[in-house]
Amino acid sequence: MLKYADLKISDLITLSDLPLPSTSIFTSTQNNTPRLRPEKTSWILVDHNALQGELGKLYSNHVRGCIDHHEEENSVPKETGDEPRIVRKSGSCASLIVEYCKQAWDDLAAESASSEEVKKWDAEIARLALAPVLIDTTNFTVETRTTDSDRDAAAYLRARISAVEEGFNQDGYFDEITKAKVNIGGLSLKDILRKDYKQWKDGEKVNLGVSCVVKDLEFMVRIHNVPSLQHIVSKSPKVRKIRSRTVLM
Predict the structure, then answer these.
(1) Are the C-beta atoms of residues 180 and 173 closer than 8 Å to each other?
(2) Is pLDDT of 37 > 50?
(3) Can you say whether residue 37 is alpha, beta or left, with left for phi > 0 and alpha for psi between -120 and 50 degrees?
(4) How far are the Cα atoms of 67, 133, 176, 179, 214 from residue 93, in angstroms, in the given order?
(5) Integer Cα distance of 158 and 168 in angstroms
(6) pLDDT for the residue numbered 22
(7) Residue ranges of domains in the chain
(8) C-beta atoms surrounding 160 within 10 Å
(9) How far is the C-alpha of 177 from the C-alpha of 171, rounded, in Å?
(10) Confidence band (pLDDT; 50, 70, 90) for 21?
(11) What is the DSSP string of 22-71?
(12) For 58, phi and psi rounded to 5 degrees?
């Protein structure tokens, strides 16, 4: 979906892009101190409200806000000053982000109301933001996962898109997104297992991990042989220091 916002994969920044040593993705090998010094950072969490893993150990005291639609974990300070602290149920976290940014977006758009180029940029961002809303609510077909925040966000984003794209087809866009989501044929087995990986702590000492794979076991066997799958899954607890790992297909 990045193409609709004139973005490339190389424009994205992930932890893998940080030039950090292999012994620890966050610390220097010389004195075991964080390369990103905690006191020099401020963290705004999106789609989660507790910093986990190695990041959490180093930077949890420097979280300054969050926007999330999961259960409240009471990790982010209650008072966040000018930064958002939104933890509320919705089908998609993107809906809460749109809701939070809407007034600022409207104000900026009003300053360039006559600019066709700005309208085009707005439509590109709106398309990008609409994608997770449609995926998370299954195009508004699952009532138990859909809230008024999702409906309002989608309506707002559609209006932005329609300002430059007459006859925008939401159903067709959803079909395109769905096909892209399940297209994992070009990924390595390791990347497939970490594509939608979640890890959390149950109690003080037990770490659990879940990998969600959008294809069935037959696909995995055909693309990657079974011993390889068994090898990676069996090694994962040692690599990530987790007690149990589940693969959902």
Answers:
(1) no
(2) yes
(3) beta
(4) 7, 8, 21, 21, 20
(5) 8
(6) 42
(7) 2-87, 93-181, 189-248
(8) 23
(9) 10
(10) very low
(11) TT-SSB-TTT--BSS-GGG--EEEES-SS--HHHHHHHGGGEEEEEE-S-
(12) -90, -35
Distance of alpha carbon 34 from the chain centroid: 24
Q: How many CB atoms lie within 10 A of CB 136?
A: 19
Q: Give pLDDT tens digits for 202-242.
A: 766 777 788 888 777 777 777 766 565 666 666 565 556 66
Mean pLDDT of 65-91: 96
Helix axes 170-181, 116-136, angle to 10 degrees: 60
Residue for token pair 């705004």: 44
Which ranges constitute the DSSP H helices of the chain? 53-59, 93-111, 116-136, 148-162, 170-181, 189-195, 217-223, 226-240
What is 189-248's CATH number? 3.10.310.20
List CB contacts of 200: < 8 A, sequence separation 6 or more.
Answer: 52, 207, 208
Kindly give, in sequence order, each residue whose CB lies less than 8 Å from that of residue 144, ignoring residues fewer than 6 positions away.
Answer: none
Supply the pTM of this predicted model: 0.80
| Euclidean distance between CA atoms 57 and 13, whole angstroms | 21
d(CA 233, CA 210): 11
Gap between the Cα atoms of 27 and 35, Å rounded:
5
Encode pLDDT of 101-134 as tens digits.
Answer: 999 999 999 998 889 999 999 999 999 999 999 9
Residues in Cβ contact with 170 at an 8 Å cutoff, skipping those fewer than 6 apart: 130, 134, 139, 154, 158
Those residues whose C-beta lies under 8 Å from the C-beta of residue 73, and which sit 6 or more positions away, are 49, 50
CB 137 within 8 Å of CB 177: no
